[in-house]
Specification:
4-stranded antiparallel beta sheet, about 400 residues, about 15% strand, 18 helices, alpha/beta, 9-stranded mixed beta sheet
Length: about 400
């Protein structure tokens, strides 16, 4: 592909990504994979170059642009090399006119920037939310140690805080490595490892991962339990939960029971666990503002109305989780969001509804104390953004 053809391909992809973001369609990564699946003529260098163009254009556009071309024209205004490809030659895009639409720059739509600022995030912290993310993995303590993995993978660097974390060069083909295939490592951001450890899982306990998804934190908990005890992993998303059993088998995690829940019937489907769990982890559905480095187009998906719906879901899962905790047991609430409306405010509302419950310090201490919990953010801690709080049930 010529440079102009690559720019035109990026424009076509951005048109699809913008439309999907506004309508709630597929994620950018999925759309890019589909695009190239039907264009076999594009080599690996072409695919990489187009992908780089697409994500550079997404990151520099705060609100959703009116079109893919508007996003790329705004990028061309900043990058002379991109601007040169707008020459109308061959399969390249037409020349840029001075008065045609440009994507608006910024961190996010104005209402969302206001919400981040009100949640205590300074300008530098907001800017870091759309940087490129590092690639972290967690060493599976059921199968190896960090020191042993480092001997086999000397180019990896130990993460700053997570005791089992390693940081790799971006683009490392982790899932093609022998270490991954042998179950010695799992891809997991350092921040995710730190907040997952807040459950303080111990061997022999009865624990629940209530919003397990594909099971990244479930596997972390099983390893912390040394495969001793009972660990229930639940979700309402069949496709995501189905990814857990093969991952657990590869990791050697034998104590995990998966349970698909039907929306609206979760409480009755968990009746056998009511009041029995030593601890419950709630990695609640949220806006994902802390993961924009990995999914920058998510800024365009979020609306005030969707945020309100997410808060209702967070209330729901908190109530569900509280009903599973035994007297004196613990509940850990996590969101990969930096909005107070989804973090400390939710915990405060829960405590108002449930007398006798208390907040405890996160142990081991992580991130920065914020409201009723702790917070991690990319600028300060070099991780994805998270809020985590530890709650204790009355005895």
């Amino acid at each position: 592909m010529t440079p102009g053809a690559r720019t035109q391909a990026a424009i076509e992809l951005l048109d699809e990504i913008v439309a999907a973001a506004v309508s709630g369609g597929a994620a950018a990564d999925t759309l890019i994979a589909r695009y190239f699946a039907t264009r076999r003529y594009a080599g690996s260098k072409d695919r990489r170059a187009v992908r780089e163009l697409v994500y550079a254009a997404i990151r520099q556009a705060g609100p959703a642009p009116v079109s893919g071309r508007a996003a790329m024209v705004a990028l061309a205004d900043r990058d002379p090399a991109v601007a040169e490809t707008f020459d109308g030659a061959g399969h390249g895009p037409a020349a840029i006119s001075a008065d045609e639409p440009r994507a608006e720059g910024g961190i996010a739509p104005a209402w969302l920037v206001e919400a981040l600022t009100a949640s205590g995030l300074e300008a530098r912290q907001q800017a870091a939310l759309i940087d490129r993310a590092p690639l972290d993995v967690r060493v599976n303590s059921l199968a190896s140690t960090r020191e042993a993995v480092l001997e086999q993978w000397p180019e990896a660097q130990p993460t700053a805080t997570a005791p089992l974390g390693l940081r790799l060069a971006s683009g490392t083909a982790v899932e093609q490595s022998d270490l991954y295939r042998a179950g010695l490592i799992e891809v997991q951001d350092e921040g995710s490892q730190l907040v997952g450890a807040a459950l303080a899982a111990r061997p022999g306990e009865w624990l629940v991962d209530l919003c397990a998804g594909a099971g990244g934190k479930t596997l972390q908990i099983a390893a912390a339990m040394a495969n001793q005890g009972t660990l229930l992993a639940c979700d309402i998303d069949r496709a995501r939960l189905q990814r857990l059993p093969p991952r657990a088998e590869r990791a050697g995690a034998t104590i995990i029971e998966s349970r698909l829940l039907n929306p609206g019937h979760e409480v009755e489907m968990l009746a056998d666990w009511a009041g029995k769990a030593d601890g419950v982890l709630i990695d609640a559905p949220c806006s994902g503002t802390g993961t924009w480095r990995r999914n920058p187009e998510a800024r365009w998906r979020l609306t005030p109305e969707r945020l309100t719906r997410l808060q209702a879901m967070q209330n729901h899962v908190l109530e569900m989780g509280a009903g599973l905790v035994k007297p004196g047991g613990r509940l850990v609430y996590i969101v990969c969001s930096l909005l107070d409306a989804e973090g400390t405010d939710q915990v405060g509302a829960f405590l108002t509804r449930h007398s006798g419950w208390t907040v405890e310090p996160v142990r081991p201490a992580i991130g920065t104390a914020h409201g009723l919990g702790h917070r991690l953010d990319p600028a300060t801690h070099g991780t994805d953004g998270f809020f985590v709080a530890c709650l204790r049930a009355p005895c």
